[in-house]
Amino acid sequence: MKRYAVLALFVVLALSLGMDGAAAEKRLNILFCLADDWSWPHASAYGAREVATPNFDRVAAEGALFNQVFTMAPQCSPNRAATLTSRRIWQLEEAGTHGSIFPNTYPVFPQVLEEAGYHVGFTGKGWGPGDWEKGGWKQNPAGKEYNTLRYRGKDRPKGADSSDYAGNFEAFLAEREAGEPFCFWYGGKEPHQTYEVGSGIESGKDPNNIEVPAFLPDVPEVRSDLLDYRLEVEWFDKHLGLMLAHLEEIGELDNTLII
Question: Which contiguous run of DSSP H or E holds residue 86?
Answer without folding.
Answer: none
